[in-house]
Amino acid sequence: MTPSLSRFLLRFTLAAGLGFPLLLRAAAPVHDLYLCASINSTSRVMGGGGGAKDGIYQRTADGAFVHRGLNMPLLITLVVDPRAPERIYAAGLSGAMRTTDAGQSWRILTGWDETEPKSLALDPQAPDTVYVGLPDGFIVSRDQGQTWQRREQGLPARGKYTQCLQVDRTCGGRVFIGCEAGIFLTEDGAASWRRVFPATDTVNDIQQSPHDPAHWVAVSQSAGGLESRDGGLTWTRLPGLPNEHALYNVTFDPKRAGRLAVASWTYGLFTSEDDGRTWTNRNAGLPETPRVWRTAVDPDDGRLYAAVYEKSLYASADFGRTWRELPGMEGSVIRSFTFVPQAR
Q1: 333, containing H or E segment
Q2: Going from the N-terminus, what domains does the chain have, and what CATH number goes with each?
Q3: Which residues contact 334 (CB under 8 A, 6 or more apart)?
Q4: pLDDT digits (tens, 9 = 90+) for 232-289
Q5: Which residues contact residue 332 at a Cβ distance below 8 angstroms, ignoring those fewer than 6 apart?
Q6: Sign of the C-alpha dihedral, residues 185, 166, 323, 55?
Q7: Partner of 214 at 20 to 30 A CA spacing, among 77, 109, 277, 310?
Q8: Cα(166)–Cα(149) distance, rounded to whole angstroms?
Q9: Cα 39–chain centre separation
Q10: String of DSSP letters for 218-266
Q11: Among residues 134, 191, 194, 136, which one has the least CA distance to residue 165?
Q12: CB neighbours of 157 closer than 8 A, spacing ≥ 6?
């Protein structure tokens, strides 16, 4: 019998076997890793049968990744309720979804005019509040997705395509979103918005430092990398990163302050180990001309991941200096990484 999502949300131990130094493999992880991904092939249709599936992939005890739960086309991101690990929210092609039985069944929460959400998050200070970014704006639920309200006061009539959102972990109701028209901030739970950085095309990702809550970094289609040191109120260009083509996402190393990584379709992967002052290209060891769709850092051991579009998933134990291909995600498109604390 195939294990249900409820089993993989409980507890797994990452076995030695990835070929990394013993130092990084000594302690059992305290997080499970889930990917929102598709595995493409010319012989199958997205969401159809015939082999690999779309949706949630889980890291198993031997370090491989296996599909869990339903075949859900174009699943973009998922969030687990910190109070109840069996309650999971996801953003996908059909809208915002929720499971209350750890993935055995799912319910679409949003209506016909609220499909294809690009981003979804819970407010850590009020986890019944769900924020969702849409191609045409922004919606909020205060009751775990039972009802929704448009919350767009202060957003432009044009340019409110919301690619990303990030909730300030230290202040309830404080949310940043990345749109076509720039970065917008609400400090009242989306009742009103104001623009804190103007842009002419999409802001693709916004992240808050796990070490300094006042430090924020964003990446964009053509404005390059951006950072704020005052809680997101003002933004400046990050030196050393190109801006001729898109940068897709940014990640902080939760274990080691000063380490960041940025993924790009055109440029591959960049890392910084001095808090973004200088950057180094880390494509050596990845496929030729790597289109790095997403990157992440494991909060347990600091290992760096690079998801190369329709190639595979790669990991580095030395922050990008050397790479190793991981089993189970060959031919994949990985849209997000989610690390969930294990139940104890």
Answers
A1: strand 332-341
A2: 83-336 (2.130.10.10)
A3: 35, 36, 37, 293, 294, 307, 313
A4: 999 999 999 999 999 999 999 999 999 999 999 999 999 999 999 999 999 999 999 8
A5: 35, 37, 38, 39, 40, 57, 307, 310, 311, 312, 313
A6: negative
A7: 77
A8: 19
A9: 18
A10: EEESSS-EEEESSTTSS-EEPTT---SS---EEEE-SSSTT-EEEEETT
A11: 134
A12: none
Locus of tokens 């031919």: 331
Q: What is the pLDDT of residues 37-73, one digit of tens each?
A: 998 754 444 444 455 588 999 898 888 888 888 888 8
First CA to last CA distance, the chain: 25
Residue type, 9: L
User: What would the two tokens of residue 289 be?
Assistant: 């001309």
For residue 4, what is the DSSP state? P
Task: Give the contacts of 217 (CB within 8 A, at least 6 positions apart).
Answer: 206, 207, 209, 225, 226, 227, 228, 238, 250, 252, 260, 276
Whole-number Å distance between alpha carbons of 219 and 232: 14
Dist CA 168 CA 214 (whole Å): 9
The gap from C-alpha 60 to its chain's centroid, in whole angstroms, comes to 20
Tokens, residue 47:
């969401």
Per the document, the length of the chain is 344
